[in-house]
């Protein structure tokens, strides 16, 4: 239990530091345990908790996932193995997801007398639509990487390699496509989309306008225009 709490604290500290790091352009979440992205909470540990401890535990996980979702730069989850329960909730808190075809993903809480409690009941419908999300949560079904990409749960799926890190390599490839773009523009685009998803379209347009206004005075915008006119690749600095 202490080891689990330590890992959660370290992740929370890392995420907190990323909120204020303007040099970071993309964050990739991966696991160094072969065949497992994140298998969710330790059910033996959960079984020993009283009602109050259980509520505090899940609240802590939920707030951590929210902090990850609120990171200003794009985030990519590289799912090379099992992502079950809280593991899939972590992946759902990221902007983009890559997966090995052999990966297994699912919000399986209903098979254990629970429901997704770290954001899954809210983020899965937003990712795949209400009808499909309800089917997946009601049944506790697991899906592989190819099925996940077909339903829009992940962005890219790929065959696993001998090193067991195919999804991570695919995530790096995706990150490399984002890196050349203007960092402030990318961050503002993320904010506009994430905030706009939660409001009516008129309010969303106002959010877009506000985010657009924050990009206009940047040096990167001037560099983008100059590079286009001069027919050369832009050199963005994040200023």
Automatic annotation (TrEMBL):
It comes from the Eukaryota. The keyword Lyase applies. The keyword Lipoprotein does not apply. Keywords: Lyase. One of its GO terms (biological process) is fatty acid beta-oxidation. One of its GO terms (cellular component) is mitochondrion. It holds the Pfam family ECH_1. InterPro entries: ClpP/crotonase-like_dom_sf, Enoyl-CoA_hyd/isom_CS, Enoyl-CoA_hydra/iso, Enoyl-CoA_hydra_C. GO terms for molecular function: enoyl-CoA hydratase activity. Belongs to the enoyl-CoA hydratase/isomerase family. This is Enoyl CoA hydratase domain containing 2. It comes from Oncorhynchus kisutch. The lineage of its organism: Eukaryota, Metazoa, Chordata, Craniata, Vertebrata.
